What we know:
Number of strands: 10
Bound molecules: zinc ion
Strand order of the largest sheet: 6-7-8-9-4-3-10
Order of helices and strands: EEEHEEEEEEHE
Radius of gyration: 14 Å
Structural class: mainly beta
Number of domains: 1
Amino acid sequence: MSIRVACLCGNVAIELGGEPVARANCHCSSCRDFYGVTVFSATAWEASSVQMASFDARSFSHPHKQLKKTFCATCGEVVFGTNRLCMRVVPNAMLARAGCGWLDVAMAPTMHLYYRQRVVEVRDELP
Ligand SMILES: [Zn+2]
Ligand SMILES: [Zn+2]
């Protein structure tokens, strides 16, 4: 299985091969601060599963945490983050866009991470 996802302007695209290692909604303060979201809903991939199909990308490393984000130099959208395990973390918003607005069930989060650090309550069936 291979999925191509692109940023809003289309200048940066990534090709995802195989299956994600993890699928989660992360509530940790690091994700909130770094990605500017209340909950970071994303899939994590081995670095070798993610190929850049465009090179109009920039990256920014967190000043003191092992986090990096790669984003489009034109539209600013984050196409993936890199966590301290060197995995690529792809926002589910990008995957949903690639799926015509829906997140494929194979990509849907299976858990909440760091729920104790949450700033919003989420009531669903996920652990
Ligand atoms: Zn773009
Ligand atoms: Zn997090």
